[in-house]
Amino acid sequence: MTRLIVAAGGGGDAVAASMLDAALYGDEGPAVVFTYAWDRLLVDPVPGPRGPASFTGLHPLTRSVQAVPGDARPVAPAGSTLPRLAAELPQTFALIDPHHGAEGITRQLEELIQHLEPESIDLLDVGGDILARGDEPTLRSPLADALTLAACCQVNAPVRLLVAGPGLDGEIPAEDLRDRMGPTLLTLTAEHVEPVSSVLEWHPSEATAMLAAAAQGVRGLCEIRDAGLPVPLTNEGPTIHEADLDDALNRNELARAILATETLDEVEQHSREICGYSEIDYERNKASWLGTQPEQKLDPETTLGRLHQFEAQARARGVTHTTFRRLTEALDLNGKQRQDLRALLLSSRPEQYQAPLWHIPHIA
Predict the structure, then answer these.
(1) Are the C-beta atoms of residues 11 and 43 closer than 8 Å to each other?
(2) What's the pTM value of the predicted model, to 2 decimals?
(3) Tens of pLDDT, residues 294-318
(4) How far apart are CA 182 and CA 177, in angstroms?
(5) DSSP state, residue 227
(6) Contact 257, 274 (CB under 8 A)
(7) Strands 321-322 and 357-359
(8) What 3-state class would DSSP assign to 132?
């Protein structure tokens, strides 16, 4: 029996899909995870999602869908976490190509369904911004979720919409999502995190890192992203809920507007009109700015001094945890130095590591 899990936003949603697969289905055999190759600029300096032409070594699954095996490689200067995920996790990772709009993804999904004949299809979003309207001021990355939602609503097969970790992406607060979701389907525990724990040692996803931390009992206030968004870690953090797919589409103005799109450019234009921006524009602007910044060497003494200052300021904001991505940017380091920073901190202050987050104690 084959199962298909669509990782709504790509990135960490693909890791969460592997966690969900093991938690819900156990030893029934690994699922196929249909996901974007769309990583933050820390990993991929090229703005926007990658298509098949951005990789070598892909394996065809259908006419329009390629699998990303562990030995696939992104074509420079692009980067991607997908090959390493494929090498370390048992699931098959199939690549969503969004460059032909929602109609293209719908076609890819239909081909996969015909090829796999899956017994179940789950559309998974960590955080719940797939349930947004599109005009919320805290919404930051609606495009990928809207595309997968639009496609899943058009295939001739039942799709179950699941939200893991309501509010953990820092976009739509958990309290605003409660009336948009059904009861708790599953509460993740440390046992469910174990299959992906080694991946979370290097993967840059913040929402899925907090999902895993919450499942392991971490509670507090976590600061994320370059903007320093505060995200509460509560008992609701490790829960997974089912939501109504048609209700989500009816609520999501961007998803409805892009149902018939045939190019990513069209999708972006709708996003600018409805949401006021395109997150790919944000990535373009940030990539351009990063390209002008001088390369800095990670000096341990200077870095630990900056960390001390950052922690004091964060402590004053009531922050108890943060992510290594947030630390990398807050300490004026570049994406290539994230793992070096992590190694430095774990060797100098191992007691502050509450996997996969960094703990900021209430007393210095």
Answers:
(1) no
(2) 0.96
(3) 777 899 999 999 999 999 999 999 9
(4) 10
(5) T
(6) yes
(7) antiparallel
(8) coil
